[in-house]
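Example record

The entry below shows one chain as it appears in the dataset: sequence first, then structure tokens.
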Amino acid sequence: MTASKATSAARSVLAGTAGTAAMTLTYAAERRLRHRGTEPLDYDDSLVPGEIVAAIMHLPHVTAREEKDLGLLLRWSYGSVFGLWHGALRRRVPEPWASVGFAATLMTATLTLFPLLGRTPPPARWPADVMATCLGTHAAYVSAVGIVDDGLRRLGA
């Protein structure tokens, strides 16, 4: 891997990490505004991601706490590494088109993988508040990834 490719990959992973932080902060803000305590706001915010990881890894007897931890591990690792896709798109097309393609890929995965893996109903049956949270938190993620990637690109990082 050349230094330029390594720099580009690092920039994209940092952007993905910033996006994951923005998504996490958006959940925290919404939870406070809606006075929801620790109640899940959408499927990404629930035990579902951890249940999926446990099922894929064939982990027997996973507790709710372990499912939560697996879900957080998935969010931070997947969210950070998924920034590589934005970087690949950004090398081919300018903003805002890179972020539009990035968002389309992300939402397609979000709205298909949970139901396909058997952990949620189809999106058409999601409650309106769950869908709104899903769209809002993912918009925060996509926006932060695009802004950070573009800012680091301008700095020459």
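Notes for this example: The helical segments are 3-33, 48-56, 64-81, 83-92, 97-116, 128-154. Residues 3-33 form the longest helix (31 residues).
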